Predict the structure.
Amino acid sequence: MHRRIFYPRIIEVFRSYNGKQFSSDLMAGIIVGIVAIPLAIAFGIASGVGPAEGLITAVVAGFVVSVMGGTKVQIGGPTGAFIVIVYGIIQQYGLSGLMIATMMAGVILVLMGVCRFGSVIKFVPYPVIVGFTGGIALTIFSTQMNDFFGLGLTGIPADFIHKWIFYIQNFTHIHWPSFFTALGSLAVIVIMPKITKKVPGSLAAMILATVTVLLLEKYAGVEGIRTIGDVYTLPKGMPLPHIPKLELQDGQTFLSMIQNLVSPAFTIAILGAIESLLSAMVADGVIGDKHHSNTELIAQGCANILSPLFGGIPATGAIARTMTNINNGGRTPVAGIVHSVVLLTVLLFLGRFVGMIPMPCLAAVLVVVAYNMSGWRTFVSLAKAPKSDFSVLIATFILTVVFDLTIAIEIGLLMALVLFLRRTNETTEIRVFKHEIDPKAESDAVIESEKKLKIPEGVAVYEIDGPYFFGIANKFEEVMMAVGDKPKVRIIRMRKVAFIDSTGLHNLATLCLRSDRENVKIVLSGVNKQVRHTLHRAGFEKIVGEKYICSNINEALRVAAEIVQQ
């Protein structure tokens, strides 16, 4: 079952579904839907679109992920991780560019699932994930200062450094009623879980802040606290699906625009894959299940293809909402479907009330989201890890904040790869045997007697301890040059070579050909089945000869002795 590329979990769930489980899923779905209301609105506004787009994304993506997904409890929708990349795309390519990029990312995700890349995504280094997540958190926090303090600024610079300079220069414009509204909302969000966990702190803050602002305006004459309705026009109902129209800039063609959107689309896809599969892994650990990673990628791809058709933004699996679902009894995709229905109800019938929510309250919600995303405790713990890991984390974090997420992920992954190769190179050893070999201490030696194996005169034995790939392919030649011998036979022991890549093959072939010109014969020893198969496919027998690829050191020494005698 798990070997299928696409197998939605809802299929197996319905085989044994019952009324008792439906009751649990119904309650969990309603609670998750209520929790998602303020988050969807806040993420939509922070991304540069609007509250309706955030709700639409949660409705469409939440439904698709639950119906088609590879996990039982995943809740899909807009997340804080996408805020930075979505805002940047809108600034550069407009809303239509974002829609096209999101659909392209959806196609990439589907292809990743079809090509069984679900397990590969799990190998993204942890410091890279922590670094860009922390960078996103700081960026989200920075974008909320205008509404949190009620500064009322326009034309705020996009980059981090100039944005804060602009804030400091205009901090005297603080609107105290807005600031106190934000502080009050922040206090409610923090204190509410200590009183009761049945009512989400963010929802309680929105209700209290909205009522308070309305009363202050009516009875105390307090004005100037902006609400969602002051900034955005809320639609009446669910929009009909439509193909986004690409708005071309001067001198641009359709093809050039699509080419420009490939990079942000790829970033959306990678980010969505990482976050959704991380969420699925966390959920597995809690409920004792095992998700279908490739099915989940296909479902996330379909969600991101369909969401823009209704005016939505990128979506992925949301860890916080998924855990809320689990903690409230949700155990099947039905809970995610109910969550989408709750949000659809809000979108259809409660739009007027959404417009009354104060912007400072939303800023407080996002400040808390940024704090929870920051993972500062993980930063502290990784500071005690190897310096190479911490340097990858800091570099990814700074690049995310100062430049953008695409550059941060690319350079973070590149740094992690280079550091990994360096570690591998340092741990891979090239050993030299000069006189004798103890068969009892060698895994590929056949113990024929208690005596040690003598290395004949004119024979040099080298051993590669580790994989023979492009990271260490030159190291072997460097060791031979340092030894500086000119034997008649060189035995290369490969018993500890788990695999060999094309660079290793090329270097080994070059060594054999050069040695042949110098009248030095190469004999390979202890070649395992996988490496031998690679050598055979590359036609290596034609270079070194089938006879000189030996299964153990005893055979290699006998062959070498024959060559020396001849």
User: Anything to note?
Assistant: The beta strands are 76-77, 316-317, 429-433, 436-437, 453-454, 459-465, 489-493, 521-525. The radius of gyration is 31 Å. The chain has two domains: 9-231+253-353+361-419, 429-565.
